[in-house]
Structures are given as C-alpha cells and as structure tokens.
Write a structure and sequence with these properties.
alpha/beta; six-stranded mixed sheet; 13 helices; globular; binds manganese (II) ion
Length: 343
Amino acid sequence: MLEKIIDEKNIEAVRTLLEKSEKCVILTHSRPDGDAMGSSLALAGFLKARGKDVSVVVPNEFPPFLAWLSGIDNVTIYEKTPASADEILKAADLFFCLDFNALSRIDAAGNVVAELSTKRVLIDHHLAPEPTFDISISHPEACSTSELVFRLFWQMGAADEVTKEMAECIYAGIMTDTGNFAYASGRKDIYFIVAELISKGIDKDLIYRRVFYNYSFGRMRLIGYMMYKKLQYFPKRNAALLTLTYEEAQNFNCNKGDTEGLVNMPLQIKGVRFTCFFREETPGKINVSLRSVDDFPCNKVAEMFFNGGGHKNASGGEVRGPMGKAVKIFKQVLEEYSDELTK
Ligand code: 5GP
Ligand code: MN
C-alpha cells in the first residue's frame, strides 16, 4: 500500500478547484527534462479524460528522446509562439505548476502568470517553493514530480483512471529523475508505484531504450572528446569539471539533449563527490549543471555562485561571460568548500 504523504486538505482543495475549472493549463520548467514532460503529460491525459480543456505550455523545446510521450505533439512551446501561448495562459481558469518552485523557472511565461489572478496549484519536489502558489503540493523527499502526480491520482481514489499512456509518462519521469534508479530512489514506495505502472501494461525496458538508447552518433563522439580532452580532475578536492564551448558543440553537430547526463559521468571516478559541467549555450551564456553525492550541497553552490538552485545533489544555474570566467568561479567554489570536499 502507498503511504498518503500528500496532505488530505490539498487533495480536497484540488478536487474543489477542478470542479470549478474547465480550462486547465499545465506549466513546467525551462529546458524541460523527462520528469517535467512526463509529469505534465500524465496530468494532461488524466484531466482530458475527465473532460477538461487542457493545454501544456513549456518555455522552450524538449529533448528529442522524449518525443514518443503520449500527448507531446500538442504541447505549446512558449518561445516559438509567444502570442498564442499568452492567449492560452490568459484564457486559463486553473494553472498546474509542475516540477519547478519559482515562477522565474518558466522564463517569460512566469511574468504573464504572475499578472493573472488565476489559481495556481504547485506539484513539485524542489526545495523551498515560493509562496506564490495557492495550493502547494511540495515534497522534496519525492524522487520526482511524476511520483507526486501518481500519488495525487492515487489519493484522489482515481488510480483506475491511469491509462497505459499516462503510466508510460509517469515511468519516464521517475526513471529519468533517478538516473534509472541510481539516486534519490531508496524509498520503497517508488517500487510500489513502479509495480502499479507495470500493471497498467507499460514495457519498462522499452521505455529505457527509447530514452537512453536514442542518441545521435555525434553524442558518442562528443562523450569521447569530452572525457579525453575536456575533463579536469581535482583529486585533492574529490571534484571534476567538464566544459563545452559553443564552437565545440557546433563542431560535433550536437542535437538538443545530446549533452544530457554528461555531468554525472565523472562521479564514476573513485572518490569524486562533486562535478560541474559548463555548457556554452550561445556565445557568452553558459549553462551550469552541478551534481554531487552524499551531503555536498549543490543547491547552495548554485544559489551562491551561479544565480540558480535545485536539489541538494542536482542543481543548475548560469554564468554570463566567457568560459574562463566560469572556470575561475568553479575554482573559487573548490576553495570555499575545500573542507567539505576533502573530508
Ligand atoms: P540540470 O543540471 O539537469 O539542468 O538541472 C538539475 C536540477 O537543477 C534540476 O532539478 C533543475 O530543476 C535545477 N535547476 C537547473 N537550473 C536551474 C536554475 O537556473 N535555477 C534553479 N532554481 N534550479 C535550476
Ligand atoms: Mn524533477
């Protein structure tokens, strides 16, 4: 049986809001990942089956290895069609905010949402949500937002309404946010949920292949290059750094999503507890990914040094300027946290 971790008051409040709402808009974070898309599309499928008019709005493009998720063809990408996305937001009578904790995480859509008095329901597993949400289903102990979406259905007594397609979305979210059950995945409830999803008819091994065996040739060559030429190892600090400039990414013909998971790889080196990946998205705009094991707080580093945030073991942010500036900041981090990293 599944322990009821979501406050029953919140379940009731969602139920009441749903009774009063026709046009539901589901929002998820910038550069949406498997959990962002999986949780959003599962909820979208659920609400549609209940007769709601549902739109999923994402700030920018999702990676191609998620293109098979049911309902993804109808997702509105804000960056591509801002005017029609704004119309969808303005017409909504209920917002579901999935897999983010602050309106700034949905980029320009956040400014529009902030202006509207439409009720906002948060479903998320990041630390410290903003107080901007009317209902806050916030559980940092959950492995993923997809786990929480399943729990919401379950606690609403609506697990029967979960179809195979919704189950696939939820499984994809749990699988990607736990690195195929390698981290944040030690609680037994997750496996109860997985068993329920399998009983809906999902093929978990097929989902694994769709997501993780679906990269380009360029990505394989890029990984080789990155590990051979670009990996910096700091054995005294149990840390590692990867950098990729805009020009290098162009040379490898990198697709969107081709750098997914690279930041985790140096954690395979014995002793490494903290890794950082700087990826120059456009000249002068560097995307920062941080990963750690055990107690090392990536989220604090992201907040203090990279104008970002996230989870304790997986965070992100950005640097404006050349790669040299980002590398300097990383070295400052190693100095500042030398005690935590060397112990
Ligand atoms: P990734 O390295 O995969 O881009 O991000 C890792 C985690 O950090 C994700 O859970 C993501 O939501 C969070 N994250 C990434 N970038 C930012 C950011 O700029 N601000 C905040 N608050 N969180 C971020
Ligand atoms: Mn997530």
